[in-house]
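Cross-check.
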Amino acid sequence: MAAKSDGAVAAAGPGPEGAAGGARGSAGGRGEAAAVAGSPGVVGAGGPGPRYELRDCCWVLCALLVFFSDGATDLWLAASYYLQGQRTYFGLTLLFVLLPSLVVQLLSFRWFVYDYSEPAGAPGPAASTKDSGTGGAAISTKDSAVAFRTKEGSPELSPRPAPSSASAYRRRCCRLCVWLLQTLVHLLQLGQVWRYLRALYLGLQSRWRGERLRRHFYWRMLFESADVSMLRLLETFLRSAPQLVLQLSLLVHRGHEPDLLPALSTSASLVSLAWTLASYQKVLRDSRDDKRPLSYKGAVAQVLWHLFTIAARSLAFALFASVYKLYFGIFIVAHWCVMTFWVIQGETDFCMSKWEEIIYNMVVGIIYIFCWFNVKEGRSRRRMTLYYCIVLLENAALTGFWYSSRNFSTDFHSLILVCVVASSFALGIFFMCVYYCLLHPNGPMLGPHTPGCICPEAPGTCGPPADAVTSPPRSLPRTTGAERDGAAVGGERAGTPTPPVFQVRPGLPPTPVTRPLRTEGPVIRIDLPRKKYPAWDAHFIDRRLRKTILALEYSSPATPRLQYRSVGTSQELLEYETTV
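Predicted model, tokenized:
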């Protein structure tokens, strides 16, 4: 059976090996998925995946605290400028708050509209299981007027009675209330807050529910966390970064009369930038089963690394801009153009279309004005060293030009600021070395290096190419040893060894759990090559594909696995058969 990412129905009969294959659809080749189920007696085997813990909840609450502190101090400072009659500073401060917030809210609301909208004449996506005619269960999704319900812990799905007029009326009222609530939330510029709270709710639900629904809520929590991390990354570099440079420039311009409120605003913006970068990297690694997760110690080290490097960079900008305003604008534009060209020539693979990729590269060029941001697969040591060498030279040149305009003999305050720039950058590099040498998920940089993906059985090679095969987020069980030894699963030929890419990461669960081997089970096939890290998987950024996978995953009594198209296996596409 196959399901296309636009919600249409597709089904496939059993293949020559007794398993159905996935099919390509007509959604522009961007997100077709297919599901295959094994024997009806097989349920999702495997021990429990990672649980939503108290520290995960605390991390979200701290992210909310950072968000509110950044926005509140900026608005408070804008009001202070207005009351003091400094209309220019008031306008610039308010502009850097409202314009990025409006852009992010529009994007967030657009995502909500797509996720919550339904085709005409369909009350919602429904999922069901039906006999495939070969003793197995085929999974299908379609937008129809018939819905189904799943009892927690039950391996089968039972049809729901046809809705009455009263229930249909209540359903319409509920949908109207949701639309009104979301509209109000985004008009109040609280779209990120809603998504943070929703991710927190879904995480707690995955902790409190039974195994059948736990994995479903945990998967949805990962999707919501990915959305809010991308939104926050865009907002912080459109709002907090220019706000930081502006307020630092004003503090330097005032000289020996610093004000507490601008200092609070710059501190909040700086913490927001560092926190958002570390949080983005953590959620990205948690979402990919081919990468080891980032620990909270590593995330804190990343926060300190970005905190001090961005502080040195922003202070150098502020010092230079306080004297050479026109040349500072020219420098920023030139640096952004060079960095954007550098990113484009690296041929990133983040978005689903060419124009979206260009816009993404332009945003990354803005990020590169302030800090390092990895966008290309492979060892980033040389590229990161080159970047920080360029940043060091630029910081030294900007600070030197500013210091040359001061009075060397009497201005001791200027010498202190130069030392602050140098020491802050040195501290940032120190914490970067601490992260890579001690806290990197793959192990120490100078010691024994652990492969990036979770393949303890194959230290020499790390499975197939990154775009070949994957499994759902870590809440779902992995492929067992029988599948890796060549059992016919998901349409693959028997006797063909499959490299081990589905094992649970070490350390989760903390104690060994006895699990029955699962040689058969549902497989969701995605007719796309897998995106290479550090890009998100396609089912995280393509919302049509996400909706289809969630419907398939929720309708399946057993735990499904995700399988992307292997570029090296051209015959795999011939196994797909589509029926609409």
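The radius of gyration is 26 Å. The beta strands are 2-4, 9-10, 32-36, 124-131, 137-144, 148-150, 157-159, 523-529, 561-565. Passed to J.P. for a second look.
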